[in-house]
C-alpha cells in the first residue's frame, strides 16, 4: 500500500514540483523513515494480527489518512531518541508536510495532521567568512606548475567571483559561459536558471584552463560540455572540490572551518559589506526567498561596528 503512495509522491515531486534528484531522494527517505517507524510499532498491534511479517505489515500499517497528529508526534519523539540533530528532525518534518500536501491533492487524505506538528527550534549558526586577503592567500597556495593547478585556480576564482554552490561548479557547462558578455548561466536548485556576472580574473583563468590544459585532456563520452574535468576526462565530484579547498586552506594556515560553501558565504558577505542591494544578492545567489539572503545582513555586524567606530563621533 505504502509503495504506491511513495511512487505517486515521487512522480508528484518530479513532474509538478520539478525538484532536483537530491531533494526527491531526501523526501522519499523521510517517508521511508516514517514507514520504518510504523513497522516497528507493529509489536503493539492486536494479538489477532497475522503471524507472518508481511501479513502483519499489510494489515496493521496505517494509511496516511489514518495517521493522527499524536502518532506523528510520537514519530518525531522516536527520531529524536535516535539521536538526530535538530536540523535533521526539522528537515524530516518538512518532508512530511510536503507529502501530506500531495495526499490532500490526490484525495488520499482529507486532513493534514502535519499542520500542528511542531519542528524543533533551530539555532541560526553564522558560518565562517573569509576576508578577501584570506581568499587570496588560499588561492596563492595552488601549484600552477601542475595541470590541475591551472584548473583549480579557475575553479576557485569562479566560485568566489560568482558565489556558486559546489554542485553548480561541478556541473557548469561550456555552453553556459558567455565571456564576451561577462555572464555565466547557472542551473541551480530545482533546475532553476539564473544569469550571474563573472569577474575578469575568473574569465581569464577559465580561458587559460580551456586553452592550455583542458584541450589536452582525453574527454570521456558524456563529459564533452563539462567545464572542469579530472585527469581522467570526467566531471569532478563535489568531494574532490572539498578536498582541494581543505588542503589549500591548511597550507595557507587558515584556522577557520573552510569549505566550498565558505567561498559562497564570503562572496555574499563582501557584497553586502560593500553596499550591494539585498535583492540583487538574492538573485545572484539563486535564493528562492529573500529571508535566506538576509542572513548576510547579520554576518557583517563586525564590519558595521568598525565603520561606526571609525566615523561616528559617539564611538570615537
Task: Describe this protein's structure.
By secondary structure, the protein is mainly alpha-helical. Helix content is 55%, strand content 4%. It contains 15 helices and 3 strands. It has helices at residues 2-16, 21-40, 53-60, 69-81, 86-105, 132-140, 147-162, 166-170, 200-212, 238-251, 260-273, 278-285, 290-293, 295-299, 301-311; strands spanning 177-178, 183-187, 193-197. Strands 1-2-3 form a 3-stranded antiparallel sheet. A hairpin with a 5-residue loop joins strand 2 (183-187) and strand 3. The radius of gyration is 24 Å and the shape is globular. Residues 43-59 have low confidence and may be disordered.
Portion in beta strands: under 5%
**H and E order:** HHHHHHHHEEEHHHHHHH
How would a crystallographer describe the biggest sheet?
3 strands, antiparallel
Total beta-strand segments? 3
Keywords:
single chain, 316 residues, mainly alpha, 3-stranded antiparallel beta sheet, 55% helix
Task: Draw up the topology in text.
Blueprint: H1 2-16, H2 21-40, H3 53-60, H4 69-81, H5 86-105, H6 132-140, H7 147-162, H8 166-170, E1 177-178, E2 183-187, E3 193-197, H9 200-212, H10 238-251, H11 260-273, H12 278-285, H13 290-293, H14 295-299, H15 301-311
Provide a concise account of the structure shown.
The chain is mainly alpha-helical and 316 residues long.
